Amino acid sequence: MEKRLFVRGNEAVCLGAIEAGCRHYFGYPITPQNDIPEFMSRELPRIDGVFIQAESEIAAINMVMGAAATGNRAMTSSSSPGISLKMEAISFMACMELPCLIVNISRSGPGLGGIDASQGDYFQAVKAGGHGGYHILVLAPSSIQEMYDLTMLAFDLSEIYRIPAMILGDAVVGQMKEPLIPHPRPDTELPEKTWALRGKGDGEQRIIKSLYLGDGELEAQNWKLHSKYQALKDNETRWEEFETATASLLVTAFGSAARIAKTAVMMAREEGLKVGLLRPITLFPFPAEAYAAATQQCKKVLDIELNTGQMLEDVKLSVTRDTDVFFYGRPSGTGSLPTPEELLEQIRRHCS
Amino acid sequence: MRYDLFISGFGGQGALLAGTVLSYAAIVEGKNVSYLPSYGPEKRGGAAMCTVVITDGDVGSPVIGKPSAAIFLNQISLDKYGSKIKPGGICIINSSLVDSTAFNRPDVETILVPMNDIAMQLGDPRIANMVALGAYASKSGAIEITSFEAALKEALPERNHKFIPANILAIEAGFKLGRGSSSLAAPEVIAQN
Q: Which candidate, A265, A234, A243, A285, places its Cα nearest to that of A341?
C-alpha cells in the first residue's frame, strides 16, 4: 500500500507548494491559517527557500509581487480580513499578469468576523475583490488530498495563463486531518518565462507594469486579459459529479459544504430519492457547462453554501432557462455547521 | 462499515490526541478517516472537541450531527452534547469526573468508565484518554486493539515513544472494561479492585 500521511489541510497546502517548486513564502499571521506560515518557516530554510514574516499582509503580498516578477514561484496565505488587505496588490498583479498563489483559509465576516468556517468570501474571490474588474483563478478544495493536488495545479495554471491563483478554503478543510498520498508534481509543460525580470544585463529590456498611458494601451491590455479569462473558461473548468445522471434534484455546493452535502445526498439516495451532487472545483472559471448539461434533464437545483447565497448567482446564470434554483445556507457565527441531517431535510422538501 | 465518534472534554484531557490516535489506527488498518477538531479560541481548561469518521468507503461529511458514539471526558460535555447521540448509539462517560445520574437516554448504550481512576492506578493520570479509547474500540468494533501500538508510533513524536507502553496498558484496560460492561454496574466493580 502507498504511504499515507495524516496531515491538516493547511499542511497539505505547504507540502503541495514545496513539491510544486515554490521556495518563496511571505505572510503575516492570522487564524485559522497559521499552520501554513508555521510549516513554511520550518521547512523552507531547510531547502534553501525564503520565508519572511512580513510586517503586514500588505507588505507580504507586495513581496510576492516582487518574487513573482522575477519568475519565481511565490505564495502568501491569510484569512478573510487579511485577504482584503492584499486586494490592491492582487489587482496590480492581475494587470501585470504575474503568476502566484494566494491561499485564503477564510473566516466569517464582514469586518473582523469570527474564525469558524464560512464561505462568505466567494464574491470577493470570484468577482474581483480589488478594483478594475479583473479575475483570478480560484480553486476550491474539499478534501486534504485536494488541498495538496490543487495547490500544485494552481501553480501550473497560474504560470500557463500568467494569472494570480487562489486556493479558497475555510477552517474545515484547513484544520481537518485526513490521509494524504503525496506524489511528484505533474509533468506539465510550462511556457518559458520570457517576461520574467532578470536584472540589468545584455538581454532585451523587459518591463512588468500596470500603468498603460499610451493611446489605447490600457484598452488593449484589458482585451488581452478578457481573452485570457475566456481561454480559462474554455479549457480549465473542473468539477465533480456524483449520481447526477439519474437525478431529479441536483444539489450543488463547493468546498467544505460539498462534503456535508455529499453525505446528505447519500442518505437521500438510501431513502430512494433521486438526488445528485455537482461540486465545482474551479470557482473561476465557473463550470457553467456542467450545470447547463445537468439541467437538460434535471429541472430542480438546490444550491447549498455556508453563507446567504453567493455562488447562487453563478448557478442561476448557468442552468437551462426553465430550471428552478433553490437555496439553502446560513452564514457562520452560529457556532455550528449545517449537519448532513439538516441538509437531508432540505433535500426531502424539494423532492416532494 | 462506517463509524463515527465524537470526543469532548476540557482542553488538556487529551480529547484531541485520542481522536488523532484513533485516526492513525484507522490508517494503519488501511481505512479512510477524517478528523475534524473543534476550532476556536481554545486553551487548557477550555472546551476541546473532535469528530472522527472511519469508513472503508467515502468519508463524505466530516461534520456529524448525530454521532453514533461519543466519549464525554467532563461534566459540561455530557450536559451539553449528551442529547446529540444517535438513538441506538454508544455513550462512554468518564465516571471519575462526571455525575451521570441526570443523564436520561435509555435509547443509547451508556458505559461508565472511571477513566481517571484507572489511569491513576496505572500510574499516570494523563492516560485517561487512552482508557476511553480502549473502551470505545471494544464497544464499537471500529478498530482492532492491535492497531494502536503502530498508531501511537505515528501519532507521537519520537521523544514521547517511551510513553507508548503505558498508553497501551491504558487502552487495554479500557478495552477489557468495554467488553465486560453491558450494564452500568460492571465498571464500578472493576474500579473498586
A: A265
**Is the model's pLDDT at A13 over the cut of 60?**
yes
Strand-pair category, B109-113 with B90-94: parallel
Residues with Cβ within 8 Å of A178's Cβ and at least 6 positions away in sequence, in order, are A6, A9, A143, A144, A145, B32, B33, B34, B35, B59, B62
B23 touches chain A (CB under 8 A): yes
8 Å CB contact of B39 and A32: yes
Residue A85 pLDDT greater than 80, yes or no:
yes
Taking the C-alpha atoms of residue A225 and residue A230, their distance in angstroms, rounded to an integer, is 9
Are B61 and A179 within 8 A, CB to CB?
Answer: no
Going from N- to C-terminal start, the domains of chain B cover: 2-192
Nearest to A337 among B30, B41, B63 (CB): B63
Overall pTM surpassing 0.90 (yes/no): yes
- Between CA A62 and CA A80 the distance in angstroms is 17
Residue A213 buriedness (CB in 10 A; 0-12 / 13-18 / 19+): exposed
Length of chain A in terms of residues written: 352
- Decide which of 3.90.228.20, 3.40.50.920, 3.30.70.100, 3.30.565.10 is the CATH code for A239-351: 3.40.50.920
Q: Shortest Cα distance from A44 to chain B (angstroms)?
A: 21
Q: For B31-82, what is each residue's pLDDT tens digit?
A: 999 999 986 666 667 889 999 999 999 999 999 999 999 999 999 999 999 9
Tell the residue number behind the cell numbers 517576461, with chain if given: A195
- Phi first, then psi, for residue A276 (nearest 5°) are -130, 170
Q: To 10 degrees, the CA torsion angle through A288, A294, A297, A303?
A: -80
Domain A5-197+223-235, architecture per CATH: 3-Layer(aba) Sandwich (3.40)
**Which ranges in chain A are annotated with CATH 3.40.50.920?**
239-351
- ipTM over 0.85 threshold: yes
Terminal alpha carbon distance of chain A: 45
From the list A246, A171, A206, the residue with the least C-alpha distance to B41 is A171
Q: At what angle do helices B164-180 and B185-192 cross, to 10 degrees?
A: 130
Nearest neighbour of A116 by CB, restricted to B23, B27, B39:
B39
Whose grid coordinates read 507502553? B165
3 state DSSP class of A141? coil
Alpha-carbon gap, residue A23 to A74, rounded angstroms: 7
Q: Which CATH number is B2-192 given?
A: 3.40.920.10
